[in-house]
Amino acid sequence: MSKDTDRFLAPSGRKIKLKDFSTNYTGDTDKEVGKVTLEVVKEKLSKYQETLYAGNSHSVLIIFQAMDAAGKDSAISHVMSGLNPQGCQVFSFKTPTANEYEHDFLWRHYLALPQRGRIGIHNRSHYENVLVCKVHPEYILNERIPGYADTKKVNDDFWKARYESIRNFEKHLTENGTIILKFFLHVSEEEQKERLIERINDPSKNWKFSSADLTERDLWKKYMSAYEEAINETSTEKAPWYIIPADKKWFARLTISQVIEQAFKDLDLKFPELPEQEVAKLEEHKEKLQAEA
Fold it and tell me: What is the gyration radius of the CA atoms in the chain, in angstroms?
């Protein structure tokens, strides 16, 4: 990755503290320049998507995790707006259904993985199982895992095993051609408050507000601890976490797009080249078409 995006990377094998990562960093870029740059990057992403689809050997999985009102939805809509929807799919994961609880916690996420040549975006993801479930361990009981009939059994060893399951899951995916990029939109508690108030004040945004948002906000410190541990346990060289400053939405969108752009550059994808005999046939077909009246 380039040095420009490295500053947001949670390095593999080294513990990070979220307090060391700014929520309002914008560097030397101002908002207007950032918007123009984003449009340029989006055009590049569109071209990269073509080579990804044509090559049909890799897939890209982009994961967004954040606290409420951090800007996940708007980041997805702005950054991905230039992509061909035929080669891109978005899944927003909510509370598991009764049927999903009949399977292991990774099952529904595996079903939503992108095919080769496609880009998959997961708005929330399998990480909810070590984030919201870490803050609310009683949710684990819904999974009916043998030996875990009460929350007292959901201890450090349980979470270590779950992190290991996630690492193994992602390792398997990357070894089979999936590029994984994980974004934590790092918003400040103060900025979240302002955005929640905005949702209340603006009738067109009332639908976005839920009283549950305030319940979870009261658990802010527990969530930050859960995010920090999850990032430290699962940021690997092949499936890295990026901690994106999210107080300024325009900068978060720009940074996310640049990280994705750099990942495509590193892949160095090219359009498939046809064998010489196939190229010769193309010339024959062209001559036939040109000869038509």
Answer: 22
Element spanning 183, H or E: strand 178-186
**Stated length of the chain:** 293
Cβ neighbours of residue 64 closer than 8 Å, sequence gap 6 or more? 72, 75, 76, 121, 122, 123, 124, 125, 183, 185
Please give the average pLDDT of every successive group of 10 residues along the chain, which has 293 residues: 76 94 95 95 95 95 97 93 90 96 98 97 98 97 95 96 98 98 98 95 91 93 98 97 98 96 93 82 86 82
C-alpha distances in angstroms, 158 versus 49, 112, 176, 234? 39, 25, 27, 15
The architecture in CATH of the region 3-291 reads 3-Layer(aba) Sandwich (3.40)
Answer yes or no: are the C-beta atoms of 87 and 205 closer than 8 Å.
no
Quick one: three-class SS letters along 222-277? HHHHHHHHHHHHHCCCCCCEEEEECCCHHHHHHHHHHHHHHHHHHHCCCCCCCCHH
78, 37 contact by CB (below 8 A): no
| Torsion sign over Cα 232, 237, 240, 242 | positive
Structure confidence at residue 2 (pLDDT): 46
pTM of the full structure:
0.93
Residue 121 and residue 34: Cα distance in Å, rounded?
23
Strand 9-10 relative to strand 241-245, pairing: antiparallel
Distance CA 254, CA 262 (A): 12
| In the chain, where the domains are located | 3-291
Helix (H, G, I), strand (E, B) or coil at 24: coil
Return the bridge partners of 121, or none.
62, 90
**Neighbouring C-beta atoms of residue 206, cutoff 10 Å:** 10
Phi, psi of 234 (to 5 degrees): -130, 5
